[in-house]
Predict the 3D structure of the following.
Amino acid sequence: MLYAAVIAVIHLDGRRDALRGGTPLYTDFTTFYAAALQLRHEPAENLYIPERMHQAELAAARAASDVPLSEAQTRAIGYAAWMYPPIAILLAAPFGFLGYLWAYFGWLAATLAVYLAAMGQVLVRREAWVYALAAPPVFYNAMYGQTGFLTAGLLGLGLANVAYRPTLAGICIGLASFKPHFGILIPLALVAGGHWKPFGVATITVVGAVVASIAVYGADPWYAYIGTLGHHFGGFEAGAFEWRAMVSILAALQMSGIALEQAWTLQYLAAAAAALATVWAWHGAVTDDDCRLAAAVVCAATLLAVPLAYTYDLVLAVPAAGWIWRDLRERGGASAEYALLGVTAVLALVLKPLSYKLGLQLGPCISLVLLGLAIWRLGRRRRLAV
């Protein structure tokens, strides 16, 4: 309720500022809504053309503010590129037929339902809903109207059902390809664990989603998407990304003053270590307890492996923490383990002010602590089993 109240105040303040001639409210969902509006009048490949997308974002900002905007207010609105593959266009399209607020709350409600369904399987206790809604990353994602609920929900459902419902697991994992870089470690996990059926179903689901997007919008959006990938990577060097809003190792290193080339080298090394940790965790994970900790490993490791991860993407850390918490409750643990888990929640809560006010990006610390806890508990269990 507190999160909802804060978000409501932010939106009301944004509208009030717009009425007074100030900068109108512009959230990440405005870009999503802009894409949905543009699809009603233009071909889908135009989402990848900066000039056309920017015009759509101006229209979306006007719709979000629900007030006439002056020329100066319009100029104050920034530009955010559409970086998703055409699979995601299928998700965005229906929201263009709704008013801004209906679209915003509809998107949050739909994606929150997927996330809560996943958390209900991560924590099979009544307090699962309280934990799932109270986790600080939930606030960040809801405030921005971003994709964190859907990413964490689909991957969480997929990982929770790998052993028991492999078809469902594969479908969920495949659908998560709307944000492909967050699935970078999933194939390694499934292959290392010998989970071939969900691997195959996930592959078929991805291919099916690609075919569906081509059937609806043609192949041109895919050519446009692939053509923009190099431009987006170049954005790192051009300073187009807001490091303070990101929780990746690359962002933390850049904010600490390390040169970009060296930061990339360390990011690649971190990705390699995350991949090795994933393979180790999933290879030989036989019992239910082992599989849950292995799932926590891949969630936390993913956040360390990808260079492009924002505060709202930390929703993926919530199921990881949930699996660890469940293991602590069911198998017991040291007070230090409980304390470390609590530290991750505190860090997530103060993450944004530390980043924006003090220039400290501690997002990777959350993922590192969760990864360390999961590996520690899984490794100790395997040593005792020998």
